Amino acid sequence: MFSSLVVQAILSGVTNGVIYALIGMGIAVIYKGSGVINAAQGEFSLIGAVVAVFAMKAAGFSYPIAFIAGAVFGILLGIVVDVVLVRPMVRRKADEDAFLLLTIGIAFAISAGVLFFAGRDYFTLPSIGSDGVAIVFDATIRYHAIWVIVACAAIVAALRFFYRKTSFGLAMMAASIDADGAATTGINVAAMRTATYGMGGLLGALAGLLVAPIVPISYYMGLVLTLKGFCAAMIGGLTNPMGAIVGGIILGLVESLAIVFIASAYKDVVAFSVLLVIMILVPQGILGRRGRKGG
Amino acid sequence: MARRWMGTPARALAVSAVCALFTTTLFTHTPSHAQQATGEPIKIGAILAITGPGAGLGVPTRNGVLLAEKAVNAAGGVRGRPIKVIIEDDASNPDNARTKANALVHNEKVVGLIGPSQVAQIVAAGAITDPLKLPHIVPAGLSVPVERDRKCVYHVLPPQDLNARALMEYAANAMKIKRVGVLHDSGYGNVVMGALKAISSSYPGIEFVAIEKFEIGATDVTTQAAKVRASNPEAVMVIATSGTPFRAVKQVRIEVPVIAAIGSSSYEYVKAMGESADNVIIPEFLVGEDPLPDQKAFVEMYRKEYNLTPKNFEAAGWDLVQFMVAALKATPADAKPAEICEWLRRPHKGVLADYDFRDADLTGMKLTSFVYSKLIKGQYTRLPFRVSK
């Protein structure tokens, strides 16, 4: 029985960790590309999921089309945030804390907007594949959670390919590492930053779309998702989107194993103690140093 | 919209419901042929969580408040004057609640205050109303010791120890079980869990074989659910305000009955539970699908107005306004706030429950007011079990 509990903790930890990682990757992408910590990343997820739900239930689109609509809306939201709100502040040379305040404001505004237009309902999307569970050593994992893990791995591979092998991705990275240098080589730095926000919006929306079949989404959940995603990004290294995967899975596993080996009441104490230790030992995050070198 | 509503049979229904549902005192003050209330409105303040995490409580309460305001005015108002409930949103924030309470009391000169929806906000607003002895009724149960000293802040939902007893009564007397596992969240669930521990000595036959906690907004609680399952309980109590733990219970194949606290009883949470909602048992007060005889008029009126089935917080919102109105009608027009407050200190019959505001918990609700329901395909079915004394 105890071994099945440990297996359950690992399965649950990986599932949670991947969810944290998806949010964390979006935060890291935006931070890497613009130097802004986006406190509204969870709200991007919220919007992605809610748009897909309404596309299916109100507009009658099929699930794949609704999924794409949610993802596209995420990209557009990211672009709008940059063009309408961030860009004017950049022109006025706003400080880092002003940008943080801006994104906190965006988070509250989106949350209130969802409450106003969509209500206080919980929104769910159909599972990919089946609603059932796979049984592993008497522990269970939902089939959809397996798809989320697979999707997360695919997103990581795609991001890695995008940043390393495509000229657009390399230009975005160049603009983030040395904006002036990039500008001298003809890279449109402002457009690259807009693309970064679009990418962050896409990652956020994908997280919401993948999570909504497991976790019913409601207007207030953006902040909760952002906090865990931020922790994942910090552990992995805020400047390296790939680090969020490492950070998210570490955070998820520590939380769930703490439930089994210590007590559920102390889960967060244990998880955040580990976070503190990692921050003391590796202040830039586990993969942060590589991220700063452009890795 | 309002004019059309008042010109329809809803008006007659409102009048009859008002007459049927209120205290004897009200009967004597409600004209048999109610006229449309006219003149300067009597202002009642309301602070509710319309946005923020508490909106799940505040929005349904607001619906009940607005329906009651409409019904009261359709029935002639207070001494021929309409009432105007000025609703403010505290955004689930205690600082806002205090600011809004100050504005309502000192700028708007309201004759009484309704709300806020949550404990910290109630404590903050109570600090404004208590020194003035302003009549103040809230849609929450007494939760912290400081509230006991505020004798003009009455409550229309049960204190947490009563919620806990309602859960234990079902386990002990309806199911007659001994081993109970608990899955609770770190907010509402933590408070009720504390009450469960405090009253457990009254139910010596029941042992908590597992108590597992998760944070509000947790995305996955299957590890906690698996620990509960491993303890071989005969039933699991879920005390939370989200659907996540119910899904986890189903995912880890817990087969024993699930008893949920009243906090999970809104339709939003039921929707969030999905298929996991089936067979969940909830001690509550209003089963809209099968209301008690003296709740039927309210349920019909609510359905007509909103095309929705009301639950507990909607009924609480209705009761809040009706009690305040009853006090205003029963006291002289120039009564001081303390006199209105003092008048409220008596038994009241509400839609949600019977109250006795003379009680030390400023609620006076009894276990006998609870009804028990079971969820079947997203609908509540009232169970025959009631606590007899």
What would you note in describing this structure?
The complex is a heterodimer of chains A (295) and B (389). Chain A is mainly alpha-helical and 295 residues long. Chain A has helices spanning 2-34, 41-57, 63-91, 96-118, 143-165, 167-177, 179-184, 189-211, 221-236, 243-261, 267-281, 288-292; strands at 133-136, 139-142. Chain A has a two-stranded antiparallel sheet. In chain A, α1 (2-34) runs antiparallel to α10 (243-261) and α2 crosses α8 (189-211). The longest helix of chain A is centred in the N-terminal third of the chain and has 33 residues, at 2-34. The longest helix of chain B has 20 residues, at 55-74. Mean pLDDT of chain B is 88; it is low at 1-32. Chain B has 2 domains: 2-159 and 291-366, Response regulator (Rossmann fold), CATH 3.40.50.2300; 160-287 and 370-382, Rossmann fold, CATH 3.40.50. In chain B, the strands form 4 sheets. Chain B has a 5-stranded parallel sheet, with helices on both faces. Chain B has helices spanning 2-6, 9-21, 24-29, 55-74, 94-107, 119-132, 160-174, 188-199, 222-230, 244-251, 267-273, 296-306, 312-330, 337-344, and strands spanning 42-48, 83-89, 113-114, 136-138, 153-155, 179-185, 207-214, 235-239, 258-260, 281-284, 347-349, 354-356, 371-376, 379-382. Chain B is α/β, with parallel strands linked by helices and 389 residues long. In chain B, α4 crosses α13 and α9 (222-230) packs across α10 (244-251). Classes of the chains: A mainly alpha (295), B alpha/beta (389).
